[in-house]
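Thread: Modeling a multi-component assembly for a lab meeting

Hi all, long-time lurker, first post. My supervisor asked me to bring a structural picture of a complex we are working on to next week's group meeting, and I have zero experience with this. I have the sequence lines for every component (704 residues in total). Could someone generate the structure of the whole assembly? Inputs are pasted exactly as I received them:
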Amino acid sequence: MTKTVSDVICPFCGTLCDDLEVVVSDDGKTIVDVYNACAIGAAKFMHAQAKDRVKRPRMQQADGSYKEVSYDEAVEYTAQMFAKAKKPLMYGWSSTSCEAQSVGHEIAEKAGAIVDNTATVCHGTTLIAVQDVGIPSCTLGEVKNRADRIVFWGCNPTHAHPRHQSRYSIFPRGFFMNKGHKSRKVVVVDPRVTDTAKMADIHFQVEQGRDYELLSALRVAVRNEKLPDVVAGIPKEKIYEAAEILKSGRFGIIFFGMGVTQTLSKNHNIDEAIMLTKDLNEFTKFSIMAMRGHYNVTGSGQVLGWQFGYPFCVDLSRGFARYNPGETTSNDLLRRGEVDAVFVLGSDPGAHFPISSVKKISQLPSVCVDPHITPTSEVSKLHVPVAFVGVEVGGNCYRMDNVPIDARKVVDPPEGVLTDHEFLTRVNKRLGELMGAA
Amino acid sequence: METVTVTMKTQPVLFLEADNISPDAFAGKTAADIASLHAYEGREQTTLGKYFDVSGDAGATAADTRIVVKGDVSRVKYIGMKMSAGEVVIEKDADMYVGAWMQGGKLIAKGSVDAFAGIGMKGGELLIEGNAGNYLGAAYRGDWRGMQGGLIRVKGNAGSDIAYFMNGGTIIVEGDVDVHVATHAEGGRVIIKGNAKSKVGGQMVEGEIVVFGGIDVMMPGFKFVKDEELEIDGTTAKFSLFHGDLGERHPKRKGQIVYGKLYQKI
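Re: Modeling a multi-component assembly
Sure thing. I ran the full set together rather than chain by chain. Output:
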C-alpha cells in the first residue's frame, strides 16, 4: 500500500509550487509518482530515485578517473583547500536551503572568500538596478487576485516556469478576477515567437538588443511626448496603443527574464523597466517582478543581504564585505585569474559559464557539491554528492516574490549520504581548527 | 616636488590591491617607510616592498609628492585612489580603479587602464593616454553621485557605461565609446571626439553630451531643437542640439523645463 504526501514544495524553479502530491512506497523509501507538478518538477523528484546515483564523494585522479573517498576525507580536502587559498570563490547556493547558505557564509568569512550565487549570470543585473532605483513589487498572490495587465518581457514562462501562468499570471480566477484569463490583457515583448508570445493579446517582436530603447519609448508615450516613427522595429502607433492599455488597467505587472537581464544594456534595461513601472503608478497600480530561475536563488540573495548587505558577488577577502559586479562576479574573477580555489554548491557553472571560466575551474583546486553528476562535477577535483533539498531534506526557500516557504522532506536520502548543511557544518568546524592553528 | 619611484619587481600571483600608492599615503615618508605600507593580495596583508622597489623619499605633503610607477602593473588595482594633491605617473598599463574617488592633483596613465577609472571623482585631472575600460567616471554601485568634478581625458577609446550618474566635471574621450554614455546624468559634460554606438544619454535628466562622430542608434526620447555653432575643446563647428531624455523627469527652473543636452556635430 502506498501513501501520499500532500502539500509538497517543488524544488525546481522560482515559482516554488506548494501543492504537489507525492506518492511514496509503503516503506517510505522510494517515490512512486508525483501529481500536480510540471514535467520538470516531476523529473526532479523521480531523478532522486536513479539507481546509478553517486552515493560517496569521488576524488579525481591524475589520469582523469575517479576514486571513491570517505566523507571524512572530503571534509579534510575541502577545509585544507580553504585554509591554503588566498582568495577562494564560493559559487552556487541557488539550489540549497537558506540554512545551508548561512553555514556556507560562515566558512566564507573564515576563509576570506568571495560568495557569489547564480544571479551573477541571471538576475544579478536586476539586483544592480534595484539598488540604483528601488523596486515597486508585490506578491504572486496579488497578481493572481488583482492583476488585469500582464507584461512578459524577455521571458518565456511556458517553458521555464511552466505552472506560473496557470497558478498566478494568466489563467487563474482570483478574488477580483473571477473571469480568469478573459479579464486580463497580456503583452509579450520578445524577438522570437515563443509559446508565451502565442498567448499574448499584443506581441512586440522587438529588435534584438533594443529593449532599452523600447522601454524608454514607452515612458515617452506614457508622458504623451513625441516619438520617432519607429522604435526598435515597432511603429509608434503600436507603442502609444500599448501605453494606453497599460495605463487603463486596474492593476498591472511586468514579469521579466533573461531576455532583458543578460542582453545588451543589462541592468539599464531593468532600471528603465522599473522607472516605467514607477511612471505607470501615476495612472494606476503597477508592479514589477523578476522571474527568478532556481528555486532558492532569491533565498541566497536574502541571506547574503541580511548577513553582509549585498545580494550577490560579496567579496570578504579583506575581512569586510565589498561588492562590485564587474570585478567581484564569478566570471570576471575566473577569466582574469583573481581566485586560487573554487567551491561550487547547488549550481552547475560547468554547463552555464563560458569555456574560459570553466577551464580555470579545472586548473584550480576545486570542490563540487551536487547530488548529480554534472559538467561541473566532471571538471572539479572533488565531487561530493549530497541529499536533494526539498526531496530528501527540508529547509527554507524563497519564492521569486520574496515569500519564504519551508520545503518538506518526502523520503530519506540513501544511507550514509550527508545533506548540504551537514557537510558544510563539518567543513566549517574543521576549517576553524585549521585557521585557529595557523 | 620630491619624486618617489616605485618599480614592480615581483608580480603578485593573484591581483594586488595597492590603494596606498597615492601621494596622500606617501607624504612625509622615507623610501623605507613607503616600502612597509600595506597592500593586499587576496586575504593576505602584505607590504608594498614585497612587490615593488621603492626609491626616493616623499615630500612633506601630498602636494609636494610625485610618484612614478614603473614596470608591469597590469595586475595592480587602486593606484592613486582618493588622492587629493600631488602627481602620479603610471608608465605602463594598469588594472581597475585608477584614480578612483580622486579629489585633486594630477594622475597620468601612459598606457591603458581597466574598468572603474575615476569613479566617484570629485576633482583633479586624470589623463589616460591609452584606452579606458568600462565605467569611466561612473558612480560606485548603488551610489547616485557619479563623477562630481575634475577632468578626465582619454586619448584612446573608452568602454561602456561611462559617466553613469554623472553630476559634474568633464570627460573628454578622443576616440570612440561603447554603449551607454551619461546614463542617469544630472550634470557634467561628456565630449566624444570619435563615434558613439547607442543608448547615448538614456534616462538623462540634466548635463551635456557632445558627439563629434556618429551615433548608431539615437534614443527615442531625444528631440531636435536647433543647430548651433560652438567651440568645444579647441574646435569650432556647427552642432545639432537635441533635448532629452523626454521619458525621464525634468526639473523646472525660472519657469523653464531643464533638459539634458545632446550636441552632435553636423
